[in-house]
Amino acid sequence: MGKPFTVNIDRYDPYKSFRFRVFFGKSTTAVAGVSKVGSLKRSSDVIEYKQGGDAIIRKGLGRTKYEPITLERGVTHDPDFEEWANAAQVLDKGSPSTSLKALRRQVRLELLNEAGQPVHRYIIHRCWVSEFQAMPDLDAGGNAVAIEQIKLENEGWEHDLALGEPKEK
Question: pTM of the predicted model, to two decimals?
Answer without folding.
Answer: 0.77
